[in-house]
Amino acid sequence: MAQRYLIVGMGAASIAAAEAIRSRDPGGEILLVSEEGDGYYSRPGLAYYLSGEVPEQQLFPFTEDDFDRLHLRRLHARVASLQPQSREVALEDGRRLPYDRLLLATGSLAVQVGLPGVELDGVVKLDDVGDARRILKRCRRGRTAVVVGGGITALELVEGLHARRVHTHYFLRGDRYWSSVLDETESKIVEQRLQEEGVQIHYHSEVAEVLGKRGRVTGVLTQDGRRIDCDLVGIAIGVRPRMELAEGAGLATERGILVDEHLQTSVPDVFAAGDVAQVFDPFSGKSVLDTLWGVAVAQGRVAGRNMTDQSEAYHKSVPFNVTRLAGLTTTIIGTVGRGRDKDVRGIARGDSETWRHLPDSFAAQDVSDVNRLRLLVGEQRLLGALVMGEQTLSRPLYQLVAHQADVTPIRDRLLHPSARLGDLVASFWAEWRERHEAA
Ligand SMILES: Cc1cc2nc3c(=O)[nH]c(=O)nc-3n(C[C@H](O)[C@H](O)[C@H](O)COP(=O)(O)OP(=O)(O)OC[C@H]3O[C@@H](n4cnc5c(N)ncnc54)[C@H](O)[C@@H]3O)c2cc1C
């Protein structure tokens, strides 16, 4: 009998799992069920779609031929519940689907705020391509927007709206942008660039109420009594893993679905991967969430292999994300930040909790104009790095952090106040690579 593999979700983790299963089990039945009618597309690409840099069709990396080649069946439906005892899931319309192995790759959704007026037409979020389309439609009529929240998604909303000629007010609860990951200088660089573009940043500002007329947004009232007229309100204050199915079935959960090193949940033959999975992190010694595309792919791959009787442990690698902040390419590697951020409740999109653990380390930094290099230097190795602007050193730094290269020979020089970090890292990496490749 062919094995029946059932995958809930059709995002990065799901597709990676399906590919991994197919590479090991040519005859198994693979069914992907997703409530999103748009199927598989790049969520990080939504920012570029919003700003007009990428047309919608470029968001879709898979063609019909790709699905056929892998013999993947797809179903557009919402899974309403999971019954592990009888090894089946129930769809919202009452149908039941049996499985031998199940993957929950249900992703995460934007955290909702409980403000008066959030139900008004014109209050938007950015979870999926449907949201992006709605925002673009609104931009045609909209003139002014208020965006609330920290992290990457809020900034993507700000930049996308601004690119569509919508005058944008950006509300920050604290005194700077993304304080859990960026340091003060980096936040300032981002904020200044936004302000130069014409974005109005409001520090220490919170929305008390979204105002409306005939069901549509007309403005916001701030907690300190100011009124700002606008026709759009974008909210991106963090995301929450979608654990409804797991919780309903009694699987072990904390902030995400808890999985073991094989990405199996507390119930046999039920696996979890991607934004929804809470995974042990050897770097911090804690069980953490990551909401990163690359992590979802890596986890999906391992979960898929384990669903086909292979036994492979998932090793969480050093977090690595290349993103764009106010037009500046920024790479974040390993540990770089300081913990919680008032603007983000939980975890932000494109974020790794590992970035936000304060390590026992020193920061060494190099700033020239908008280019910036910040290293977190531990006793013997680099714990993390942030590279903003010029990107030549991103890959070398990733290798040094990921391979835990011993930086003792240059440690004192790195920490010297007038160190030329870029030059030091570049020459150290060249020597290290030679030794590493020879070994
Ligand atoms: C605007 C935006 C910008 C981002 N930027 C970055 C970035 O710069 N860098 C980066 O690394 N990451 C970024 N991310 C995050 C990245 O896209 C996610 O980490 C990744 O998509 C997670 O993949 P996943 O497979 O776990 O879940 P998802 O891609 O979220 O897929 C889960 C799917 O499951 C479906 N589903 C859930 N429950 C059910 C159910 N009960 N029944 C049926 N279907 C269900 C959902 O509808 C969804 O389609 C961004 C995300 C967004 C939205």
Description:
This protein is an alpha/beta fold. The chain folds into three domains: 4-109 and 240-307, FAD/NAD(P)-binding domain (3-Layer(bba) Sandwich); 123-237, FAD/NAD(P)-binding domain (3-Layer(bba) Sandwich), CATH 3.50.50.60; 320-438, FAD/NAD-linked reductase, C-terminal dimerisation domain (Enolase-like, domain 1, 2-Layer Sandwich). It is built from eleven helices and 26 strands. It has a five-stranded parallel β-sheet. β25 and β26 (382-388) form a beta hairpin. α1 runs parallel beside α8. The radius of gyration is 23 Å and the shape is globular. The N and C termini lie far apart (47 Å). The mean pLDDT is 94. Bound molecules: flavin-adenine dinucleotide (FAD). Flavin-adenine dinucleotide binds at residues 8-14, 33-36, 43-44, 46-47, 78-79, 105-107, 126-127, 152-153, 156, 242, 245, 274-275, 291-294, 296, 321, 323, 349-350.
Architecture blueprint of SSEs:
Elements: E1 4-8, H1 12-24, E2 29-34, H2 46-50, H3 64-69, E3 72-76, E4 79-83, E5 88-91, E6 96-98, E7 101-104, E8 108-110, E9 123-124, H4 129-141, E10 144-148, H5 151-163, E11 167-171, H6 184-197, E12 200-202, E13 207-213, E14 216-222, E15 227-229, E16 232-235, E17 239-241, H7 244-248, E18 257-258, E19 270-272, E20 277-281, E21 286-288, H8 293-307, E22 320-325, E23 328-334, E24 362-368, E25 371-377, E26 382-388, H9 394-402, H10 408-415, H11 421-438
Parallel strand pairs: 1-2, 1-7, 2-3, 7-19, 9-16, 10-11, 10-16, 11-12, 18-20
Antiparallel strand pairs: 4-5, 5-6, 8-17, 13-14, 14-15, 20-21, 22-23, 23-26, 24-25, 25-26
Helix pairs in contact: 1-8
Residues 8-14, 33-36, 43-44, 46-47, 78-79, 105-107, 126-127, 152-153, 156, 242, 245, 274-275, 291-294, 296, 321, 323, 349-350 line the site of flavin-adenine dinucleotide (FAD).
